[in-house]
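User:
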Amino acid sequence: MQVATSTDKMRARTLGAVGHLIFNNPEKRNAVSLEMWRAADEILDGFERDDDVRVLVLSGAGGKSFVSGADISEFGKERSTEEAVRHYNERTAAVYARLECFAKPTIAMIDGYCIGGGLNLATACDLRICSTKSSFAMPAARLALGYPFHAIRRLASIVGIANARDLMFSARRVASDEAHRMGLVQAVLGDDELESFVSDYANTVAANAPLTVGAMKFISTQVVSDPGERDLERCAAMVADCFASADYAEGRKAFAEKRKPVFKGR
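Assistant: Predicted structure:
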C-alpha cells in the first residue's frame, strides 16, 4: 500500500508488516534536500504509529544510489547563511538520531552509492545489506566539511575506530566486499538478488515476537550509549513485559504443538 507524502521525492509504502521509506531523487543519485528530510520525518511518524508495521526498510530509487549525500544544488537557499546551515544541520541530525533510536528494527537496503550523508544515514540503521555494485565513502575531508560527534560515534561503533579513521582521513571509496569485511554491511548480494533477500529477511524479523524484538532494539541502543545516559530500569521493565505477555504463552504453546507461532505484540 502506498502512503501519501508531502513531496514526490520521498515515497512510502507498506508490504504486509514491512514499511518502506524510499529516497526518490534518482536523477541526483538520491541527494537529499531539506524538503526531503522533512518528509522523511513525517514518514517515520506514520510508521511509528502503525502497529501493523514491525520492520522498516530504507532504500533509494533508481538502482544507482542509496543516498549520495546532501543536494548541493539546494545549498544556495538552504545553507547560504550561518543560521540556515544551523537549521539544516539540526534537521538532519534529528532524523539520524530518531532513526537510530526508532522503536522498530531498521534495515538499509543499499544498491549503489552510499556516500557522505548517505553513509551517516545507513549507520543510523540497525542493519545494512547491499548489492555487489555498491560503494561507500565519507568524503568530508575532501570538502572541508566538519563532521559531528554522533556521526563519528555511529560509524566507529560499527566498523571500529581504526576503520572509521581510515574512511574519514582518506575519504577513499570502499567497494562492497571490503565494506563487508570491515563489518559495515552484514551481507552482499548480487544485484538481482538484493530486493528479494531483504524482503525475506525483513519478513522473518516481522514474524518474530514484537515485544521481544522491541526490547532487544531498545536495549541494544543502551549498550552503545554513554553509561550515564542508560535507562536500565526501562530495559528491565521491557524484559519483564515480554515474560508477562500473551505472546510468551503463545510461543511456548506453539513450541509444544510443533507449529509456527502467531505473535500479536501483546
